[in-house]
């Protein structure tokens, strides 16, 4: 007998069924349970003071960047610098299918395309600002890194209120091009961040990517990387800084569709209080993708007995001439290292902060821009200081 499960308020408002724990990819993030109310449209107008306040909160506020501002998914031309870059409508439609993309289609965001061509010396920061109470916000951005070009792109997500933010970003890195990308998920404390990022990498292209997740009460980030040209390289790093009852889940799939490509994935996750972190990483090697070199690892630091980390590393290999591997660890601070620092006169709280900073800082090594890396280190130190005060 079929049992009809009544739709939740959120499902009725959003117009589609939410994923639940009986679905393998969502076993640790049951949206039917975690999203428990309806959401309406985001406000059409936001006062200027609120926008400026959020812009000033960006960790890169004092760094020379070319800033492009979106407010509730819409381009704010007056606050955006478009010199030397091309941005317009008609973003590429993703070929993947999942709940996050279906939700994005339901919310009907503006579709924008950003073209980076030549050597873009100044980092480009795309600021996605979200506002609203029980509001659903969505955006869709496609990034084209032209053949033999190089650029640094930063996506910064900030907000004020209680909202769902559903950004979809697709990125094409063409032949011989290089993209250094940083994503900062710094949403409002009560927000829910549900994103999907899709990369397509051409021959001899290089992608260096870092996502820092520390905002929102609930974060689910799907990432797909497809190696489409021989000689491609991707380094995908991630870092969590979570506390209280934050919940962050990353589902990463790297697809080696052609031979002679290299991929690396490194996630360093810090959880405190009742926070929960999840990393689901999968490396696929297709039948003809010989000479693939793919390695993946995730490491968790649990700072309280009630914090939790779940890891699901996967390898799916159909070729026979490959070098692939994965690993996952989780645990408390190394007490030998802590004792060593304390024996040198460093107070316990400060010694713990130094060890945590060193642990998560390994993920930041993928960032080539020194000013941006310093801003990340400063931000993580601030988080550690606030944690220490709260404790």
Structural write-up:
- The chain contains seven helices and 18 strands.
- The chain is an alpha/beta fold and 391 residues long.
- It has an 18-stranded mixed β-sheet that branches.
Would you spell out the secondary-structure blueprint of this structure?
Blueprint: H1 9-14, H2 31-34, E1 40-41, H3 48-56, E2 66-71, E3 74-75, E4 86-89, H4 99-107, E5 111-116, E6 124-145, E7 150-173, E8 178-186, E9 192-201, E10 206-213, E11 218-227, E12 233-242, E13 247-256, E14 262-271, E15 276-285, E16 293-302, E17 308-317, E18 323-331, H5 335-343, H6 348-364, H7 370-390
Parallel strand pairs: 1-6, 2-6, 5-6, 6-7, 7-8, 7-9, 8-10, 9-11, 10-12, 11-13, 12-14, 13-15, 14-16, 15-17, 16-18
Antiparallel strand pairs: 2-3, 4-5
